Queue: 4 jobs
Job 1
Amino acid sequence: MEYSEEEIEAFLHCSTDKEIADRLGVSVRTVQNHKHDDRLKEILAKRRIEYVSKATAKIQISLGNAIDILLSIMNDNTIAPQIRLNAINMLLSVSKPWLNDYDFSYYAPKEAQGYDGLDFL
């Protein structure tokens, strides 16, 4: 079965079967039947992935700006020391998990290939 954009949006944005039914002008039973359709499930899953990808891209773009602002606060001697310290703390606390993930992703393939970390000997 083919679904209109309006139907897809209703399934994505409404939180209850009744809301979906009211928005589309169909019965709750019709909504429940559609929820069991594998094609609809596939469409909704792909659309959710698209939404998450777009949101992630926006976050990645804004992270550069946020880091630049934090760095400018940290380096501006006219700003109160406590504010500068807060900026440093925020930058370090937020970046630690990212750095750990990067370290793992960078070194894991070597370890998976039998790399023992002793190449300096």
Job 2
Amino acid sequence: MSQEKPITLRQQHNKKRRRRDTNSHQFMNYIDFYMKKKKLHREICEAIRDLMTAYDVKEVDLLGSNADHAFFSIEPDGSDSLQEIEVNRVYLDKDNEVLVDSPDLYLADKDFYLQHNHNVVPCSIDTIYESVYQVLEQGK
């Protein structure tokens, strides 16, 4: 009777790898798109802030401009539906955090932070960046 040599860990790994190569769709890693959207959301907020800082402005009025309309989406607490909010004004607070103002926001406190508000749908703020960019470019 022949004695088989024990399989080393490297051999086990290579065997699994060969099997995985033939069935690669079965071994895909989970992709957390929510975290990617949160990261992109932060990057858009930073881009808005950097743009306004580069133009040395603290406030951009979107109502009186020819820029495209700026919107973002929120999911109000206790609701399972989204609400689209039109932005009239974008401004920076004393710490250069991006805030927006809108008649659609029924808040006692008018300071609505884009980056730190848990109701804002991640990545729904790209049109705000586009509008701010258009207004600042027109004012050159």
Job 3
Amino acid sequence: MCPQLLDFLVWHAGTLESVSFSDWYGRTSDRGPTEHSTTWYALFIAFSDAEPRKLRQFEILPVNVPYHMPPCQIPPPQPSRAEEVRLPLEENPKRRLFPYAVLDDKYGMLLEDEYENPASFFKGDDQKIWERSMEIVEGNRGTGVS
């Protein structure tokens, strides 16, 4: 995800009726150049503030993002971070893990950000503003505005 996409969505918020992301990842500024960084929180807050009055569908696919921890040679004595994330996701179907990844500049590989994924999950900001965004979408469905 890049700042240009965020700008596009905000600019077209008044006309968009459906937005769907498939296999998209956020990126934080502390893991790469800030000009290429967009968090899910920043996307959701900017788009919500733009008041997308015609938006009736807003989805992020896949809904169940796989979560992996970096390999470790010695098994941890406590539940792993992956387990700590997995349990709340299973207990609450509305809870989401919004994925973060880093694009390797040298080899072009997409690497899951194993530090940002649990950190943003437990912080909860992405989830809170996602719920606010979904309230807007559901309100639009009920108004019949076209």
Job 4
Amino acid sequence: MVGRDHLNRVRSVFPVVFVVFVLALPAAAAGEASVYSVNFWAGLGGSFDDNDAGLSNSSFQFGFSVQPEEQLLVGLRVGELDLSGGLIGDSLDTSIDYATVVGEYRFTETFYESGIYIGLGLYSLDGVHMLGDSFSEESVGLVLGISGEFVLTDRIGFLLEVSGHATRLDAVDTLIMGHAGLAIHF
């Protein structure tokens, strides 16, 4: 399914990364607390919409975040949810690529941080109909989630998160995902 259109959509995410980075620079230049992190997640997810995809589909996600204030994170997340394990409408071999920009408020506990986040996303559904013709559909959406980070070292944390996504895709308009992964802070 990796074609020219798919690569163009992936390339279109890079301006968003640049904007998030540029917006974070003034806080870093002012000497305020500013921590950058790169995040890697793997998990499961799916949808309960009118399909049999279930919630046992593999998912991965990469992220970049900046912490302009002590309890505030602004981040970009890019990922894929593979829905090929079930029938989505009349489609097989379906996947959803997404990019979200989120704001997260964190609560500091003794040995971990918990958080709640909300954001906007771009979603792209690609698949193959049962008759063999491929299709693609794009949508904007909202994401709401909760997260936790357990400190392993000064620079590495173990991440857990659960998120719900509301999109305007025809075949799948509600997504639920759970991820675990690592954060590398610098």
